[in-house]
Amino acid sequence: MREYPDSKKMAHGGTYLLGIDIGTSTVKAVLIEKGTFRVVQERQKKLGPHVQVDTISAHERSVDEIFSCLESCIGSFDPSLLQGVSSIGVCGQMHGSTLWKGAHPFFLEGQLRCSEAASCTNLVTWQDGRCSPNFLASLPQTRQAISVSGGYGCATLAWLQKFRPDVLWAYDRAGTIMDLVVFALCGGIGKVTMSAQNATSWGYFDIHRMEWESELLSGTDFPVHLLPEVVQAPYTAGYLQMKWHGIPEATPIGVAMGDLQCSIYAAQPTPTDAVLNIGSASQLAIVKPIRVHVQTSGKEDKIPPNQTPLPPSVIEVPYFNCDHLVVAAALAGGNVIASFVTMMYGWLDALGVQCQESDIYAKLISCAEEKPDTSLRIDPTLWGERYAPEARGSVSNIGPDNLTLGDASSAMFRGIVENLRRMMPPEIFQEHQIQRLLGSGQTLQRNPVLQHHTERVFGVPLVISDRPVDAPLGAAMAVQSLFSSSPEKQGRNKSTVCTVL
């Protein structure tokens, strides 16, 4: 990355922070006020259909379209506000991957763009299905708790090595789409720097030793030379190469981060808080402090505190600095309610009754409020779960006294929460002395019955955030934390010493 002498690092004194989130289908950006984290302006742009390629099960996005959407978001901010940006945080969907030519300039005349079609590949997203179960089974067995799945960066690199080695030969850099954005904005010089958050989501990364499983992979034809250098987030990846829609040259840019971690960071949990997000899907996360022993080699061994063994439904991933997240990520959330509404709409239409789906949703909540303690039980795992893909939903304990719409909707809302509770056992809450849930996500925020069941099922108070809690906000806040601390932290690297909180 391009380095600037201290005399040129003048952007820290600005008034605003810029956060960017590059999702699977949407690009978001937010300008917030430094110190108060008040949202000043926010923008988002939906991506078009995914790119059609010759592999039927592939799922790819055009990098040039992503750049264009990001340019549209940043270019629509008030230029006078952009002049006051003091740092840039970038996050996004973590599993995907793209390859590019390191010597190719992607940031020209103050704009991100792919001036040549061959300068980079498409983004292969987490939804990519070209890696068959048989192919995944043929890969080296990772020693990590998180198995390697299709759409993960390392799985995609292994597939390309076997079936399309010509693609690998054409490029000398690899990373997530967020890594490419940061690399480009910083001038595209040197190695790619990737956060441990994103590296874990690629697979074959040891979160305790902070290193790739290179020895395991080097025994195969895996392109180990393309794996990025990994650092802890937040970390200063570099500085803005040139003015960008009014954002000053030399503005510091953080290493690209994960959208999950940034969403949690935006909630600002205390050590006894768990963070619950219910949107289309659901996530329940707890921050777990880690202490680090620094070896004489300069590398660090992370030593987790004594803990209850995690069930398959819970994963442990890097958070910020030396901490980890313990996460139960359920596929069931607002999508279950949406499916129920669609079902009701279809039934009513078949009966010749005309209504709007929005009216059905409102009625579900009002009817459920009359049946908060229904005896009806609904397991909402319509699509299974990642740890149990074969699971399906069910309705049980049906009786003549619990067949109302209120019973069904209340049981469904409770079932969404109970599913998360099964995934995150009470022992983990007790171990971390959780005393409060911080709630976010539109499905949870707009549904008082869901909030009621959340408190009943988990047995702790639920506090709904009174401000937006999303990934671009957390990305901006996380990078800013570097410059509100000591100079040593600003230049942190893999030899950072941490202690148990």
Topology summary:
Layout: E1 16-22, E2 26-33, E3 39-46, E4 60-61, H1 63-75, H2 79-82, E5 85-92, E6 98-100, E7 107-108, E8 111-112, E9 123-124, H3 133-138, H4 153-163, H5 165-169, E10 173-175, H6 177-185, E11 193-195, H7 196-202, E12 205-206, E13 211-212, H8 214-218, E14 229-231, E15 236-239, E16 252-254, E17 257-258, H9 259-267, E18 273-278, E19 282-288, E20 291-294, E21 300-303, E22 315-318, E23 324-330, H10 334-350, H11 357-368, E24 377-379, E25 394-396, H12 405-423, H13 426-431, E26 436-440, H14 442-445, H15 448-458, E27 462-464, H16 471-483, H17 487-490
Parallel strand pairs: 1-5, 5-17, 11-14, 18-26, 26-27
Antiparallel strand pairs: 1-2, 2-3, 4-9, 6-10, 7-8, 12-13, 15-16, 18-19, 19-23, 20-21, 22-23, 24-25
Helix pairs in contact: 9-16, 10-11, 11-12, 12-15
What are the main properties of this structure?
alpha+beta, disordered N terminus, disordered C terminus, six-stranded mixed beta sheet, 31% helix, five-stranded mixed beta sheet, 501 residues
Write a brief structural summary.
Helices cover 31% and strands 22% of the residues. By secondary structure, the protein is of the alpha+beta class.
